[in-house]
Write a structure and sequence with these properties.
By secondary structure, the chain is of the alpha/beta class. It is built from twelve helices and 37 strands. It has an eight-stranded mixed sheet. Strands 4-3-5-6-33 form a five-stranded parallel sheet, with helices on both faces. Helix 2 runs antiparallel to helix 12 and helix 6 runs parallel beside helix 7. The protein is elongated, with a radius of gyration of 46 Å. The mean pLDDT is 84.
């Protein structure tokens, strides 16, 4: 309950002042003339002015408001290191207890997780939002429980209350981290590129810590290369990608005993492998309608360098015309099949038969080329079933099927086998065709070389379900055998045509080891905090994979068959870091979040970043490892922190619930006093 005197004049203030001046002049004249009634006239003037000023006594009913203290709790990833989480919980419990023990004081707690999109710890933005929601007159102080590694210092609010930092961590903490400075987004296959990185040490380093670090680098989970690199210096590491598409590069340094964390010792990078040029050698045994089909397919891709030779005149034809007059360019068989064969990514024999042009030693060299990682595709014509067949050459050791010497000249509908429905070369091809062509089947072929399949995968069948397209891996390379030379009928629209271009393109890309067409593959893609795992296989039955999380936990993840030969699984809201996924002999890695999470760039607890905030708000900082400080109430403007204590400023805010006014000079009473004083003065002066 408080009170005070208020004035609410009946006339404007200027009029009241003018009237007071006039009265003062009149009283001055009365005094100068020594009139006996001037004191009474003075009393009357004062009463008149008081009546016009309308004084009142105001009495207020007030209810006191509590002071507010804001506690901002850092719960970002860096706060999970060492025993910082336990320190934070203990400090918050103590703050709650001390604030609860204070009279008319309450606590607001704001918890701050990791920022979105690797933005780090937005501690001060959260504090600014909390401050904006509270009346400034009630804000007694703010307490930040953090390791000091914040990333939004520009968002610090300006408040008229002490702001303190309770620092987690230990004074003896130290850490070694891997920092990726520059990495290429693309790399040309089989050409060396470089990754620029640096290994850094932070904190209270042990005296016996080695100045070098052992660094390992692996691509797609393969065997790792190791390097011994100096700490604190920028270095370039050579890297060569060997397959097209996304290459997941895992880089790691060995963890050191006693370091704060190994979460920043590894990084996973995604480098897209691109081919500089694809070199294809196409050898046509004779001119035929399907020859142009192969040529058009290969020439349609600007990244393909095509070398194409067609045998126009067989050697057995003797007409007396010199060989030098029969060709514009000599067929450089020795150069192509002995000296430069390794430069080709794919060799295609299109209706080729043995005619003495390519000796057995050359064909044996082709066999070795495949076993060393090359690719050979044979589009078989009727000659493949004859005595001059390529199967009667050293190539027979790598071919996935043998001819039975029977050539079927009867229309048939090429079909996808059960294995083909699971193989990426032919999977979904028939469904796509039916969807695009209103459920109309593709056209028939009219010739097929009967094959006896061996160890390969039969992905397409022809007449009487006999093998039509057989694929196989041989050594490090790949072989495909198409038992017909009538694929060109699809491109000519025979009986509605068919997906000839799609089939031949997939086939060529599978042979050149495009990752998207691997029949046995394990891939993982991260999208934000979600992971999609895909397993492609020709095997049937339920599948699962073994997943190792960034924290070392091993989890068995069951897969769901989404389509024939394609199994998938989704992991939502995954922990940031590097995941390793394994299924039998296949292994891949995937990184959730950035290559170097911002939360682990600087892991040593420090108040350096927050010093300007504390200085502006008269705050202080104390390490929690030294003990939890006391919380005291200090008057505004006084020192708000000291050894073992921090202070908050009581605001004594209130809200007015009721106001009562009591007039001090009723108008009627004041007018009576004015009249009485005036009359008395007149009578006294009249008796003189």
């Amino acid at each position: 309950m408080t009170g005070g005197i208020l004035f609410d004049p009946y006339v404007p203030l200027g009029v009241l002042i003018a009237l007071a001046v006039v009265m003062a002049v009149v009283l001055g004249v009365s005094v100068w003339r020594r009139l006996l009634g001037w004191p009474l006239r003075a009393v009357a003037a004062v009463c008149l002015l008081a009546a016009l000023a309308n004084p009142s006594f105001q009495r207020e009913q007030r209810d006191g408001l509590t002071d507010i203290v804001i506690a901002v709790v850092d719960e970002s990833s860096s706060q999970t290191l060492s025993d910082r989480a336990a320190q934070t919980d203990a400090a918050l419990t103590r703050v709650r207890a001390e604030i609860a023990a204070m009279d008319r004081t309450e606590l607001r707690v704001v918890r701050v997780p990791d920022g979105a999109d690797n933005s780090g710890t937005a501690l001060l933005a959260a504090m600014a939002e909390a401050v904006a929601q509270e009346p400034a007159a009630r804000l007694a102080g703010a307490i930040l429980i953090t390791d000091g590694q914040v990333h939004d210092i520009d968002r610090a609010p300006v408040i008229d209350a002490p702001t303190h930092v309770l620092l987690t961590g230990r004074d003896t903490d130290w850490d070694r981290r891997l920092f990726i400075q520059d990495t290429p987004a693309f790399a040309i296959l089989d050409e060396e590129t470089t990754i620029t990185l640096r290994v850094e040490d932070q904190g209270a380093l042990p005296a016996d810590l080695s100045p070098n670090a052992r660094l390992s680098i692996a691509i797609d989970g393969a065997a790792a290369q190791t390097f011994n690199v100096p700490v604190g210096r920028e270095i370039e590491i050579p890297l060569t990608v060997t397959h097209a598409g996304i290459n997941v590069v895992q880089i790691a340094i060995d963890a050191q005993e006693g370091e704060l964390t190994d979460r920043n010792n590894a990084a996973a990078l995604r480098i897209n492998g691109v081919r500089d040029r694809l070199r294809v050698l196409l050898v046509s045994g004779e001119p035929h309608p399907g020859e142009r089909t192969w040529r058009n397919l290969l020439k349609s891709d600007s990244a393909v360098d095509l070398v194409h030779f067609t045998i126009l005149r067989p050697p057995e034809k003797q007409d007396g015309v010199p060989v030098s007059e029969l060709s514009l360019i000599a067929f450089p068989t020795r150069e192509l099949f002995l000296e430069k064969i390794e430069e080709f990514d794919l060799i295609i024999f299109d209706r080729y038969k043995r005619r003495g042009i390519l000796p057995s030693v050359y064909l044996d060299n082709v066999r070795q080329y495949v076993e060393n990682g090359g690719a050979v595709l044979i589009a078989a014509g009727p000659d493949f079933a004859s005595a001059d067949s390529l199967f009667r050459s050293p190539l027979s050791e790598i071919l996935p099927a043998a001819p039975t010497s029977r050539v079927i000249e009867d229309p048939y509908l090429p079909a996808i086998t059960d294995t083909g429905a699971r193989h990426p070369v032919t999977a979904g091809m028939q469904d796509d065709w039916l969807r695009q062509n209103g459920d109309e089947p593709w056209g028939r072929w009219v010739r097929q070389v009967e094959l006896d399949a061996g160890a390969g995968d039969v992905v397409m069948s022809g007449h009487s379900d006999s093998p039509l397209l057989v694929l196989n891996r041989e050594g490090e390379g790949r072989v495909a055998l198409l038992g017909s030379d009538h694929a060109w009928l699809w491109s000519r629209g025979f009986e509605g045509g068919g997906p000839q271009l799609d089939l031949l393109r997939r086939l060529a890309h599978w042979m050149m080891k495009e990752p998207e067409l691997e029949e046995e593959a394990l891939t993982a893609i991260s999208d934000g905090r979600d992971i999609e795992i895909t397993r492609r296989t020709l095997a049937q039955g339920a599948r699962d994979v073994t997943l190792t999380t960034p924290s070392g936990e091993v989890v068995i993840v069951p897969l769901t068959e989404e389509a024939a030969g394609r199994f998938t699984a989704q992991i939502e809201d995954a922990e940031i870091g590097l995941y390793r996924i394994r299924d039998a002999d296949l292994e891949t890695v995937v990184a959730v979040g950035p290559a170097a999470p911002k939360e682990f760039e600087n892991t040593i607890a420090s108040t350096e970043i927050l010093e300007p905030v504390m200085a502006q708000a008269r705050g202080g900082s104390l390490r929690l490892e030294d003990g939890m400080p006391d919380i005291r109430q200090v008057r505004e403007g006084r020192v708000a922190s000291g050894r073992g204590w921090i202070g908050i400023t009581p605001r004594q805010a209130f809200v007015t619930t009721d106001v009562m006014l009591f007039p001090l000079a009723p108008a009627w009473l004041m007018l009576m006093l004015v009249a009485a004083m005036t009359l008395w003065g007149w009578l006294r002066e009249g008796r003189r």
